[in-house]
Amino acid sequence: MSHVFHRHCHHLPPTIASGNGMYLIDTQGNEYLDACGGAAVSCLGHNHLAVLDAIHRQLDAIPYAHTGFFTSESSEALAKMLADLAPPSINHAYLVSGGSEAMETALKLARQYWVEVGEPQRQHFIARRQSYHGNTLGALSVGGNAWRRAPFAPLLMDTSLIAPCYAYRDQRPDETAYEYGQRVANELEAMLLEKGPETVIGFIAEPVVGATAGALTAEAGYFSRIRAICDQYNILLILDEVMCGTGRTGRFFAFEHEGIVPDIVAIAKGLAAGYQPIGATLVSDRLYEAIASGSGFFQHGHTFMAHPTACAAALATLTTLEQEGLVDAAEQQGKALKSALHHQFDSHPFVGDIRGRGLFLALELVADKTSKRPFSPELTLHQTIKKTAMHNGLMCYPMGGTIDGRQGHHILLAPPYIIESTHIAAITDKLALTLEMCLPHQ
Ligand code: PLP
Known about the structure:
The protein is of the alpha/beta class. The chain is built from 14 helices and 19 strands. The protein has helices at 37-40, 49-61, 73-85, 99-116, 137-141, 146-149, 167-170, 177-195, 222-232, 285-292, 308-323, 326-345, 381-391, 421-438, and strands at residues 16-20, 23-26, 31-34, 90-96, 124-128, 159-162, 200-205, 208-209, 216-217, 236-241, 264-267, 279-284, 351-357, 360-365, 394-395, 397-399, 402-403, 406-407, 409-413. The strands form five sheets. The protein has a seven-stranded mixed sheet with strand order 4-12-11-10-7-5-6, sandwiched between helices. Strands 1-2-3-15 form a four-stranded mixed sheet. Strands 13-14-19-16 form a four-stranded antiparallel sheet. Strand 13 (351-357) and strand 14 (360-365) form a beta hairpin. Helix 4 (99-116) crosses helix 10 (285-292). The longest helix has 20 residues, at 326-345. It is globular, with a radius of gyration of 21 Å. The site of pyridoxal-5'-phosphate has 15 residues, from helix 4.
């Protein structure tokens, strides 16, 4: 019996023993090709010596000191590096221990900003239906994921949800992709007018939607229209790059593809590549200065924030990404993986859409390609696919996404940026075999 409280109470996964590059190995000696970085975390692959060395050096010097008493060289250097990577208007990083904490920080910071500048009546967030921003109550409040929210709904903050940009499902035959993007972005304006813009704190979105919709990119022009609406009505734009950030899309920040700059952006998963738990909330000068020159104190904080060992791991990760040209590699290898997926699955009867950017890609599964009807949620296909893929030596990330309130299915691929062409071939082969074993035969 396991005394660990596993998320699936009746399912004990294999026990991990070691890792090497693109592979993880369990205690039975089974090897798994990592095509999803866990949950888009392991951007450097496993057991990268540069990161291990940096962690060891930090442990030898000082593993931890509370931020109420000390700052650390590793946290200062990490925040500086993030400020250098960010657009010129973003110069401060609030360092926490993961994605939910980073989003929770973003929400509280945005609220405190309006209190500091004398607009405490702003209490409302607008977010999108196909989105996940974390499992803490604040982050869950602004997420659109119905099944995750359901048991906790009475405890959640009141948030208004609008449609995401989901062209595969929602673009009409009589409009171009651009027109569709503008139409759906204008839902933000409509919601603002309904709620009263002076009551709204900000709008929250993942630039590329991860777990709830499967590497869903927006149509060109969507996010610039969103930014323009936020500016026109003076609300904050908060981007969640916990999953899609830190180079995964082929730019360090996914918003760089959109030509916009947010007021706040959260990053986490790839920040220390899984070698340590860490997240960061990057804050624009406008917000930082309002708090610094106002009360001078952000009403927030965690015991393990700016943890020196986690910061050392993140610093080594970012340095390695830069030195090994891995963000460019994510773009190049992403193109190669996407075209291999098209080659393998374009004519597959149950693969409705292949999408994503860089090494953040997904297949949307449908029971019928013409009507785009999803498979029944009762099939819990995502669980069967995950188990079968593991059996076939492949780690991929199948999820039951939400489509107009119904459950659909997709498979997310987010491999380490060190991926090579042999791995790409092995991923498509193993995935094809897995689908063959899991989906009905025509
Ligand atoms: N935001 C997004 C977009 C995520 O994908 C996740 C995790 O999957 C989170 C926030 C929450 O991060 P964490 O699980 O580290 O708390």
